[in-house]
Write a structure and sequence with these properties.
Mean pLDDT of chain A: 86
Order of helices and strands of chain A: HEHHEEHHHHHHH
CATH class of the largest domain in chain A: Mainly Alpha
Oligomer: homodimer
Shape of chain A: globular
CATH topology of the largest domain in chain A: Four Helix Bundle (Hemerythrin (Met), subunit A)
Distance between the termini of chain A: 37 Å
Largest interface: A-B, 36 and 36 residues
Radius of gyration of chain A: 21 Å
Structural class of chain A: mainly alpha
Strand content of chain A: under 5%
Chain lengths: 243, 243
Amino acid sequence: MNDDALGRLGDGGSLTNRVQAAIEEMIMNGELRGGDKVNEITLSERFGTSRGPLREACRALAQEGLLVAIPNRGVFVRELDLREALEVYDVRSALDELMGRLIAERVDDAQVRELYGLVDAMDRAAAERDLERYYPTNLEFHNRLLALANNRRLQRLYKGLVKELHLFRRKGLLQLGSMRISNEEHRQIVQSIEARDPIAAGVCMKSHVLAAKQRLLAAVEAERAQEITLAQTSAPRRRRQGT
Amino acid sequence: MNDDALGRLGDGGSLTNRVQAAIEEMIMNGELRGGDKVNEITLSERFGTSRGPLREACRALAQEGLLVAIPNRGVFVRELDLREALEVYDVRSALDELMGRLIAERVDDAQVRELYGLVDAMDRAAAERDLERYYPTNLEFHNRLLALANNRRLQRLYKGLVKELHLFRRKGLLQLGSMRISNEEHRQIVQSIEARDPIAAGVCMKSHVLAAKQRLLAAVEAERAQEITLAQTSAPRRRRQGT
DNA sequence: GTCCGCCGGTCTGTTGACAATCTGACGCAT
DNA sequence: ATGCGTCAGATTGTCAACAGACCGGCGGAC
């Protein structure tokens, strides 16, 4: 991020809104990592504002859960441990089930065709092992579903949860887990939506998220096993790893 | 609320936190109603602070969804129309299902007995038509369930939704609807929890919320019908009511 | 050698003042 | 009478400075 950081986000109206968007962006693209301290003076100088708007932006982000404010100590980028990440997946599973239910109750044929189009595109990308194309389409697919649910509260909470997952320490594991995603799950979701079966659509979407949760767990376990192996080979005399 | 408004909430550490709690309190007890403007100078003078902390508190409450900030116009207490209230109920139904699922997977016998105790207390209060005792117990029952789910994310989102429902214009209708609540639903919830049946517990809790949603809808319909009747008798020559 | 208390620097918490914007009303022209 | 441009008052947006809290290092006592 450069000195024109706020200029690019010029559509916020107030400085506070732009600063808030800028900090959120810094967190999302990894410039600010979990546990980092948000220094008011440093950041306000960088954005070319005073500390007032910056403090207001931090307050909002803290309420949103992206930052943590400790009185007289400052604000820090929140850090999500494995337990919390799994909690988020559980909540997402519940919201996804609702999403499927709502969508199946109100889609029209054109929307179903659009969803099939996205699934087909993902199939083609997957066949070519083209992850650069698979990811954005996958993202669009889920955004489209979220929009089709037509429930603003659901949309806000869901987007918040997605943002929160960016705070997971080993974010790489999330992508590693979703890499092995089965597009077949997506197709089943659309099929149950096409059948206008709210129960089935809800179950499909819930299962989809819970499967992702399990993939994350598996990836964490795999990494842990590998770490232990590495540690044992490089320092074989050590019997116990740090807990 | 008096001039000691912040003194009673003295445990917030920073002024901002106390102001935030105070404003939230004002919204919850109805002193600030939906659509009301939050004047920075007026409120800051009332709390004995400057505008800085007050603005930060409003930022946080806006992010939480209790206030709405319009650039260069100020912040206003958010107003929930019927459509939005129903949306909230839908989301709550999903979260409650998750809650039931999680609880049934991890309760112990003592906790089940405690839940039965609360249901019994509600039965006794209902038998005596003692709503003053029924309400707090009902609240405690649901808070207890929320705690038993042991999922902080779920707890935060759920409490947020409950707060948001206070912004519904005709809040009275909510209570009117829950007055006819069947404690039998509560007992069924506990029974399925006691049976350690996650599916059944989830369904029971989801149904409980959706039933409340239907009761709200019915109350709104009843009120609307009565309004039309009154309007027709008092001004019978008018054929069309204002939309 | 270790622990305790002091102290300077740094950062946050808060404030009051200045600049920009909006609201509502007044007066004028049509 | 109605509509429009203008203006004063009020309110929000932003800033720079002051006060207080926390952190780390230093020196002395045991």
